[in-house]
């Protein structure tokens, strides 16, 4: 799925045009798109952010359920507490896990939102960024359907770029980090196949250098 407002070039960079007409966040923190190219599936795994805390961090994750398999309902079932332990042997190891993210971007670029942006999704776990612990308090979480052993798709980079720009319009996001960056030694996602340079170049040039704290 190629979202309106995005042109893909031969070099896999993306130029954003008319972004104001593509994605928007409403007053309740829910994403809207004129083409309805997304779903909202509510997760029960969230709570309120601390009073007065601003959203300043965007965390990029990756996930596949069962591990290494794509396009099934495992991720949705996990985030909505409906995972069937009998469906796969791995599921017994995560039984009772209460987690969520604000957004999931599937392999075809489809967006699923699970938690309104104003609420605190449970995606970061034990974490620290710029000497601030509890990253869930001040971050938004985006899961990419993927793994540490598989490249992400063009559609995912395209959608991630547009969603990032939309979120930056609505919230004072100053940093973008991977889950591995906020939980080093505990997490590895989004993994070695996530192309940070491509993601960086696909964002608008304005402020792009200031928003990343990554070493090339």
CATH H-level superfamily title: Peptidoglycan recognition protein-like
Order of strands side by side in the largest beta sheet? 5-9-8-13-7-14
Number of domains: 1
CATH class: Alpha Beta
Class from helix and strand fractions: alpha/beta
Could you say what the CATH topology is called?
A: Lysozyme-like
Helicity range = 10-25%
Sheet-strand content, in percent, reads 15-25%
Shape: globular
Domain N-acetylmuramoyl-L-alanine amidase: 43-191
Main location: cytoplasm
Organism: Nitrosomonas aestuarii
Keywords: Cell wall biogenesis/degradation, Cytoplasm, Hydrolase, Metal-binding, Zinc
Primary descriptors:
216 residues, alpha/beta, Lysozyme-like, 6-stranded mixed sheet, two-stranded antiparallel sheet, 14 strands, 18% helix, globular, disordered N terminus
């Amino acid at each position: 799925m190629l979202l309106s407002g995005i042109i893909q070039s031969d070099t896999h960079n993306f130029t954003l045009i008319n972004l104001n007409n593509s994605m928007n966040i409403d007053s309740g923190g829910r994403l809207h798109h004129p083409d309805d190219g997304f779903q909202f599936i509510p997760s029960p795994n969230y709570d309120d952010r601390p009073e007065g805390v601003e959203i300043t961090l965007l965390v990029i994750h990756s996930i596949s359920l069962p591990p290494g398999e794509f396009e099934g309902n495992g991720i949705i079932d996990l985030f909505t507490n409906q995972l069937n332990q009998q469906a796969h042997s791995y599921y017994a190891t995560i039984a009772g896990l209460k987690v969520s993210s604000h957004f999931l971007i599937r392999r075809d670029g489809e967006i699923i939102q699970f938690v309104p942006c104003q609420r605190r999704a449970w995606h970061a776990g034990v974490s620290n960024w710029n000497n601030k612990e509890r990253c869930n308090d001040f971050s938004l979480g985006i899961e990419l359907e993927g793994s540490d052993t598989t490249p992400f798709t063009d559609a995912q980079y395209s959608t991630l770029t547009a969603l990032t720009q939309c979120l930056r319009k609505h919230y004072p996001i100053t940093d973008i980090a991977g889950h591995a960056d906020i939980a080093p030694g505990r997490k590895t996602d989004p993994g070695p196949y996530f192309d940070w340079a491509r993601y960086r170049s696909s964002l608008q040039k304005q402020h792009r250098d200031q928003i990343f704290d990554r070493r090339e």
